[in-house]
Amino acid sequence: MGDILTNFFTGTVPIEAYLGLSLIMFFCGVYGFLTRKNMLMILISVELMLNAADINFAVFNRYLYPGQLEGFYFSLFTIAIAACETAVAIAIIINIYRNLKSVEVDNLNQMKE
Amino acid sequence: MNFLSLYILILVLMMMGLFLSKSRKQIQIIMITGASFLLLLSGALTYLYLTERAAGNTAEMLFRADSVWYTPFNIHYSVGVDGISVAMLMLSSIIVFTGVLVSWKIDPMPKEFFLWFCLLAIGVFGFFISIDLFTMFMYYEVALIPMYLLIGVWGTGKKEYSAMKLTLMLMGGSALLLVGILGIYFTTGGSTMNILELSKLKVPLEMQRYFFPLTFMGFGVLGALFPFHTWSPDGHSSAPTAVSMLHAGVLMKLGGYGCFRVAMFLMPEAAHEMAWIFLILTGISVVYGAFGAIHQTDLKYINAYSSVSHCGLVLFALLMMNQTATTGAILQMVSHGLITALFFALIGMIYGRTHTRDIRLMGGLMKVIPFLGVSYVIAGMASLGLPGLSGFVAEMTVFVGSFQYADTFHRILTIGACASIVITTVYILRVVGKVIFGPMQDKHHETLTDAVMYERIPVIVLTAAIFGIGMFPGWISSMIGDSVLPLISQFIR
Amino acid sequence: MQYTLLILALPLLSFAVLGLVDAKWKPKVAGTIGTTILGIITILSYFAAWQYFTQYKVDGVYQKVIAFDYEWLRFNDLLHINLGILLDPISVMMMIVITTVSFMVNLYSLGYMKGEKGFQRYYAFLSLFAFSMLGLVMATNIFQMYIFWELVGVSSYLLIGFYYTRPAAVAAAKKAFIVTRFADLFFLIGILLLSYFTKTFDFGILTSSNANVFAEATSKTFMGFSMLSWAMALIFIGGAGKSAMFPLHIWLPDAMEGPTPVSALIHAATMVVAGVFLVARLFPVYVVFTPEVLHGIAYVGAFTALFSAIIACVQTDIKRVLAFSTISQIGFMMVGLGVSGYGGHEGVGYMSSMFHLFTHAFFKSLLFLGAGSVIHAVHSNEMKDMGGLRKYMPITNWTFLIACLAIAGIPPFSGFFSKDEILSASYSFSPAMGGIMTFIAGLTAFYMFRLYYNIFWGKEFKPATQSENYHGHGNTPHESPFSMSSALVFLGAVTCVAGLIPFGHFITSDGVPYDIHINLTVASVSIIVALVGIIIATYLYRKENEIPEKLAKTFDGFYKAASHRFYIDEVYLFSTKKIIFNNIARPIAWFDRHVIDGTMNGIASSTQWVAVKIKGFQSGQIQQYAYVFLLGTLLVAALVIFLI
To answer: Which of A94, B427, B489, C126 is deepest in the core (most CB within 10 A)?
Structure first.
């Protein structure tokens, strides 16, 4: 802990800090995905998980292969995909809302039977 | 291009035509033209085959063609025919032709019906012309699947149940079969799928002991081997007429043909060892099916059990493993195919008029529909083995062949099988006496109309074929017998 | 003699044509065609007979001539079915009998069946029958015989069931077919057994008395009898079925449901003697190699003859009386064969049996046609509806009387000569057999005259009221039309003279002609017995009186049993309906539906049960899946970390 604080103040952030952050973000996302019943919240949780993955891309690129850019490109790519995905998901959610007047996932069992 | 492939090509063209067709009229024209071409093709094939043989061509299979379609496993599209397949192709095209006419006014969705019908026919024809094990198996599957939809959609009665039962049981059979086929392929070294080449490579005996029963039972399910026959009564009784005809007439023969061509031909030693088990089972089939038919009251059930009995006789004779009995088995396949198709066609036509198949509710139909009545009596007589009709020739060849074994076991079974002809007489005459003869049972039946032209043609074609084989069996018997000889020589060693 | 092929081909052609055109032609046209064709082949067969008996005798022995031969179906190198025409004395004799009686019946039916629905069909069937019966007797090999044997069976089925709307006719036809088919099964097995050991179907080889052919069959034994004995006994069972020997006789009385001319043709003169013909055809085998079977045949024949003669005494339906009398007479023929030896005077039984077959065909068809004529007139089969008809139907009366005298064995009518020979053959076999047969001959005379008096004498005729009506109306009985009575007169004439034919010159067991000598002792005994029978019948039935009823009362139990045909039918009904149908077919059907099908359905429903149980895992809720997935991943991760 001491090292981290030292590094924080000296300006060199170790990789563990970034990974810890992304881990926390990811599990926040997982927690939200598993527990939330509102579809918008689930979507947000998914986005959270994606962003955690983005961070990992950038960090691993920065620390393991400095000077190369594939990781950054990938995170850009993921962001773009996430945007598209969000757009589609929100469209679906809006449609569901129009039909059912609800965005609770527990109510969505019409296609099951 | 090899002209055996024309069978498939014609059917594919028919299917394409059906896709484009707009009206029922067009569908009928396409179907009848195609079916006539198939019939002509079979006629031509028979003629060419006989001339080729007469010219002294002694190759095991004639009109061979071969091209690879999947190199890693050496799977070929490989075709060729011998006398047995020629007979079966002739039978199939007759039944496809008559089946088309019988379902002339099929309702609803004629287009879809005939599409599946053609697909089924592709499977059947492909199976009989193939000599590559895998291609054969593929066509076998192609023939099974359309059955599900044909029964499930166009059937009568508890059709969903029957369709499901039939498909599942036959699929179960083909799963066994697949294991058997793969077993044969890998135990011979995995170099070829061609049956003729496989027969020269020996499957090791201890492996044969596993794979022979699997393969035999796999095909046996389709050949209504006791106790795997129960799909037959339900399936046949629910199926629409043409499908019953095709199924009992041709598809059940796939089983017998496969048992002989694949299971027994490629694994003769195990066949010898295990014949007794299957002889008992088929012996039971023969007698049991006949007794089962006595008690039924639904025309189609009676005929389905009768099919169990007669198809049992096919496998029974095959397992006797001598030339006469095997020839008899193939003859029985052809003969039973024709007779049972005629039966189902007539039952379909009678059902279309009376709206019942319960024999207790009908009677004296000869008076109002003499054409159908007479044809039904002829079919019955053929089925009970009256001389001059095809059933007699086939059954007598089987019995004479089976009697060549002098030991008590074979004797008892043969005499039991002979006894089935008496039981057959009982149930056939029971139906004929009840439904066709006797006093009228139902006032509504007095206004029935006799068969119209498109119904008469299939009946006449089938009756003519039955009479043809029954009166002049020499050529077909020798054609089959000559082809059986090289195959049977595998066993006699 | 290739033209004999026409004898077979013409009726087949006539059947095909008449069967196909069916109702499109007028009945008269169809009837004329059928009758003409039969007429042609009758002439042809007379010509063939004349040619055969004059030209084919070599060194005093009649030769077997193969007039035509065609390989129809080949089973293997040794066994093949040929279709051909074999001419030898018995087949030529049968040919004459069949064509003559068929022709007469065709002629007679022109009148009898007039106005019936399905007249054309009737003639088609008659042609089919003539074809198959001729094919049977001309068969060159045993399998050809079997083929035509079956065809004969089916034409009999079709003709018995001619009135197909009547349940009784349909049931009778069915019964006849099934019973004979059951017997044919044994015939078939017999053929298979015989051919397996002898490697041939051919009669030429089989009847050559060549011991080498049967060496294997006689050396192998099964349950104390040689294989050959088994085969021949089985073949005889086939013959017994067609010839209505006890206990396979039950179909014949019922077969009288068919039109009467059909009964005359099939169930009196031709088809039912097929069994006798079969034994005669294989006679050299029976007599040389399996005499024990032949003796068995004699005993079966004798028992059947006695049994059915007793039943015939109490039946009231005139056609049934004739049916039982037929069974009884066929029993005589079987006895004749059974007691016979081979060659010369030893073979007198064989000759007499064939002779009796020949004469019986004519007088029995005459009796049936006469009965048909009576039925045509009074529209009933029952004796109680008849009586005193001699005034109304003189021709029928006289011809019927001739036939009765013939069957009773009164000289000089034909039956006397043939029956007398059988009796003397029986006496030389064993006195007991001779005695029994003589007694049956007396019984025959009695029941025939009981029939005769009941129809033509006895009480005065009263028009029938409630009886079954066959042919429309008309109360006063009248003589039948010309086509019918001419057939009667012709057959009556034949019956008068047929006995004078020197039969031994034509047909003997070994083909060598010899002279028949009437054994005076036997002849006088049989005549006396016959006369006694006739006198008793005259006393009881000539005038209406009460003695018959009193007698029936005295022997009540026996009378009842006899009139119920000794309950044989009931036994059959019990064993088929109760035992086979209820205890075999029904359980099998149940077993199939419930056990076998139940197993399949059980597999299906257990699969379904399992599916329902594990369906809960497939909730469709992504979050639940993700949760399980996550736990799983963590578990795997933990395992990887801690275990590796």
So the answer is: C126
Beta carbons of C620 and A33 less than 8 Å apart? no
Q: Is B379 in contact with B346 (CB distance < 8 Å)?
A: yes
Contact between B396 and B421 (Cβ < 8 Å): no
pLDDT in tens, C142-174: 889 999 999 998 988 988 888 888 888 888 888
From the list C167, C174, C597, the residue facing B439 with the nearest CB is C167
Angle at C266 between CA C388 and CA C35, to 5 degrees: 90
Question: Which helix (H) or strand (E) segment is C52 a member of?
Answer: helix C27-55
Q: At what angle do helices C211-219 and C167-198 cross, to 10 degrees?
A: 100
Which of A34, A49, A109 should be substituted to probe chain C, the one whose Cβ sees the most C Cβ atoms within 10 Å? A34
Task: Please give the average per-residue pLDDT across B346-360, as a whole number.
Answer: 87
Which residue of A33, A109, A111 is in closest CB contact with C626?
A33
Domains of chain A from N-terminus onward = 2-107 (1.10.287.3510)
Contact A105 C622 (CB under 8 A): yes
Closest CA to C35 of C116, C94, C93, C122: C122
Write down the ipTM of this complex.
0.91
| The two structure tokens encoding residue A95 | 């449609």
The amino acid at C429: F
Q: Does B490 touch chain C (CB under 8 A)?
A: no
B211 pLDDT more than 50? yes
Reduced 3-state DSSP string for C273-330 = HHHHHHHHHCHHHHHHHCHHHHHHHHHHHHHHHHHHHHHHCCCCEHHHHHHHHHHHHH
Q: C270 with C97: CB under 8 angstroms? A: yes
- The answer, for C11 touching chain B at a CB cutoff of 8 Å, is no
Considering only residues 139 to 178 of chain C, which have any Cβ-Cβ distance to chain B shorter than 8 Å? 143, 146-148, 150-151, 154, 161, 164-167, 170-171, 173-174, 177-178
B364 reaches C (C-beta below 8 A): yes
Can you say whether the dihedral through the CA atoms of C204, C66, C11, C281 is positive or negative? negative
**For C87, phi and psi rounded to 5 degrees?**
-110, 120
Instruction: Identify whether the C-beta of residue B251 lies closer than 8 Å to the C-beta of residue B147.
Output: yes
Q: How far is A36 from chain C (nearest CA, A)?
A: 9
Query: Best mutation site among C615, C618, C619, C622 for testing chain A: the one with the most A CBs within 10 Å?
Result: C622
Question: Which pLDDT tens digit goes with each residue over C487-508?
Answer: 888 888 888 888 778 877 788 7
**Side chain identity at C255, as an amino acid letter?**
A
Report the interhelical angle of C274-281 vs C89-112 (nearest 10°). Answer: 170
- Is cis: bond before B268, omega within 30 of 0? no
- According to DSSP, the β-strands at C80-87 and C221-222 are unpaired
Cis peptide bond N-terminal to B227, omega within 30? yes
Assess A105–C contact: CB distance below 8 Å, yes or no: yes
